[in-house]
Amino acid sequence: MRVLPLVLALLAAAASAQAPAPDRTPHSEVRLVADATAVAPGDTLGVAVEIVIEDGWHVYWQNPGDSGQPVTVAWTLPAGASAGPLRFPAPAVYEEAGIVTYAHGGTLRLVADIAVSPGASGDVDVSGDLRYLICADVCLPASATLALTVPVGATDRTDALDAARAAIPVPSPEWTASASATAGGYVLTVVPPVGVDLGGATFFPSEKGVLDHGAAQAFRAEGSAFAAELVGSPYASRPSETLAGVLVAGDQAVELAVPVAGVETAAAAPTSSLTLWSALLLALLGGVVLNLMPCVFPILSIKILGFVEGRTDDRRALRLHGLAFGAGVVASFLALAAVLLALKATGDGTGWGFQLSYPWVVAALAALMVALALNLLGVFEIGQGAARVGGTLDRGDGLSGAFLSGVLATVVASPCTAPFMAGALGFAVVQTAPVALAVFGALGVGMAAPYVLLSFQPALLARLPRPGPWMVTLRQVLAFPLLATAVWLVWVFGTLRDLDAAAVLLLALVVGALGAWAWGRWPSGSPRRALVAGRATSLLAVGAAIALAGASLAPESETWAAYDAAEVEALIAEGRPVFVDVTASWCLTCQVNKQTALASDAVEEAFAAHDVARIRADWTDQNPAVTAFLDRFGRSGVPLYVLFPANGGEPVVLPEILTPGLLVDALGVTPTDTASR
Question: What does the buried/exposed string (b/e) look like for 604-632 if buried means 16 or more CB atoms within 10 Å of the residue's CB?
């Protein structure tokens, strides 16, 4: 009976021998090397992460370029010790299908200096969690925990890191450089040592988002200097203040960090020329001029109409309306400013007019503009104060409506930047909250001032013609600027979503207008049957308009569905062909295949013709479910392309490099097609 456990143990051992642990450093070997056999307290210990890379594979530089992930190390050090930055040698350029990356092949040594605590004794234990991405036709994540121990004593240096240090670019006084910003990027001018030709030199920026990695660089001789026009990154929101990176010319490489002339810091630009009082004055003037901006005037024209129609009211009522409108403007400016400052405090890059970056806000404003325009055209009425102040909540003195018209004017006005406003806003966003709110409040006061003053000077209204039919004409004419504003808002909506969504929103506005017409066509007092029919039509139309608006805001239907194991199995069980693309944002081959093969018209037509369910499994963050799918096919990296044929055929693993023809051929041969032939 004791033989059985022995046999089972031997079988388990054999099974474990046949299933070795996965290689954590595929196609590479790693180790940690020190430059001393002993180190004194308070001294510096140099260490190098050495990665020996198999031929045909590469790992990425500190700025990987258009794709990839850099090599990183998270150090674990003794108390009191600290590690300097990981320093890289100069990279090489890897280019495929227009995607440019910066990477290393062969043997890579990355150097860091460890500052040992002055109170160190015994041994210095250094360890680090190494992470990198190694790529060829596929990309594989790699990781390792490296460690070494160096005794504390008199420092005993070795030459183990001499070659590694020599390969790392450093600043050199023999090289001088300057840079300036241009409309499309930068001009970098370098004066190298005598005899060095920069004709074929390359500048590698140390950070992403500064230069267009794929743009050509050509240094031209200008006397003893060489200059190159460098194309800025299309993703940069503003020019960089410093060009930092490595310039490689032949077998020479030098580290550069060059201030860029013509680029002011965000904080220094306004504070160097503005004081608080000058910023408040500019804000006040900017608020006044804001009334003339195209996105503001249509709303304020309603307020003007309200003053005209209400000029026979007593002076107290006019003043209260003016003050309520002004309060709505100022309160809204302060509220929007508070939200803006709160978002910036969290690191959000939101700017003034941020509310119009939300599609639902833009859609609601467009609907409101159309409703107000229809009201001015006389299509429907919502109360005596509606036309006067752009909407009212009560039928009395309409103060709430005046306040709300001020709110509406501010919401629509904030995307505009009138003269004088830019400097004031730039000053405000880098100040303390009280100062910033004071500047934004001054903007509100400036915008509201003309209407508050007009309400306190009703004599100015006496110069207008006496009430008559011309007022109906004026009311109707003022509807068209509102419709123009609605057009602008629909355009903004289209830029936030897409053309199809904008078309659906337009249809929602038309259906909503039908509801408004039905409401106005059979007003209160109409025969009962007509009134019921009119109200029912109106409610149905408005409900349909809301449903259409909701559809325009719904998430876009993706041709590619996100990976879900259960969903994939359900599709296969239905007998439908399924194509699974296992990809990652850092995978260069994945991105090339997407552009050159998966997105081609021929492949799109083939997918549609065979009713192929397209599944995209994103492994950017090494999702465990996607990892399990990779394991199922014996893969440890991406890309992976698997076609599950129709009616339960055996899955087909396609090559890592795709072409449109290969995909079309693969999609065209399924059990269903074979049977039909």
Answer: eebbeebebbbbbbbbeeeeeebbebbee
Residue 7 has pLDDT above 50, yes or no: no
Report the pLDDT averaged over residues 563-570: 92
| Continuous segment of H or E residues that includes residue 101 | strand 99-104
Indicate the SS3 state at residue 351: coil
Query: CB–CB of 429/344 below 8 Å?
Result: yes
Residue 21 has pLDDT above 70, yes or no: no
What is the rounded CA–CA span in Å between residue 351 and residue 343?
Answer: 9
**pLDDT band of 348, cuts 50, 70, 90:** very low
pTM: 0.53
Residue with tokens 């260490």: 47
DSSP 24-87: SSTTEEEEEEESEEEB-TT-EEEEEEEEEEPTT-BEEEEEEETS--B-EEEEE--TT-EE---B
Q: What is the pLDDT of residue 412?
A: 58
Show the DSSP H helices in 291-398 as ranges. Answer: 297-309, 315-345, 359-376, 386-389
Collapsed DSSP state (helix, strand, coil) of residue 127: strand
Do 136 and 655 meet the contact criterion of CB atoms below 8 Å apart? Answer: no
Among 44-48, 248-252, 348-352, 393-397, which range has the highest average pLDDT?
44-48
The Cα 588–Cα 597 span in angstroms is 14
What is the bridge-based pairing of β-strands 613-618 and 640-644? Answer: unpaired
For residue 107, the model assigns a pLDDT of 96
| All residues at 6 or more sequence positions from 673 whose CB lies less than 8 Å from its CB, including other chains | 610
Nearest one of 49, 34, 31 to 159, comparing CA atoms: 34
Distance (Å, whole) CA 404 – CA 389: 8
- Per-chain mean pLDDT for the chain: 79
Tell me the helices (H) and strands (E) count for the chain, helix number first: 21, 24
In degrees, rounded to 5, the angle at the alpha carbon of residue 335 between the alpha carbons of residues 330 and 339 is 150
- Locate tokens 């394991």: which residue? 631
State the pLDDT at residue 525: 80
- The separation between CA 388 and the C-alpha centre of its own chain, rounded to angstroms, equals 42
pLDDT, tens digit (0-9, with 9 covering 90-100), for 381-434 = 654 333 333 333 333 346 776 787 677 666 655 555 444 554 566 566 556 778
What are the structure tokens assigned to 520, written together? 């106005």
For 325, residues 6+ apart whose C-beta sits below 8 A from its C-beta are 303, 389, 402, 403, 405, 406, 448, 451, 452, 455
How much is the CA Rg of the chain, to the nearest whole Å? 35
- Overall average pLDDT of the 204-227 stretch: 91
30-39, 208-217, 277-286, 308-317: least confidently modelled range: 308-317
Contact 563, 580 (CB under 8 A): yes
Q: How many CB atoms lie within 10 A of CB 546?
A: 15
Cα 664 → chain centroid:
34
| The pLDDT of residue 104 | 96
User: What percent of the chain has pLDDT above 70?
Assistant: 76
Question: What pLDDT, on a 0 to 100 scale, did the predictor assign at position 433?
Answer: 74
Nearest Cα to 370, choosing from 540, 537, 489?
489
CA distance 577 to 69: 34
Tokens linked to 337: 């400013």
H/E stretch holding 202: strand 202-205
Helix crossing, 660-668 with 601-609: angle to 10°?
Answer: 10
Burial 144-179, CB ≥16 within 10 A → b, else e? bebebebebeebebeebbeebbeebbeeeeebebbb
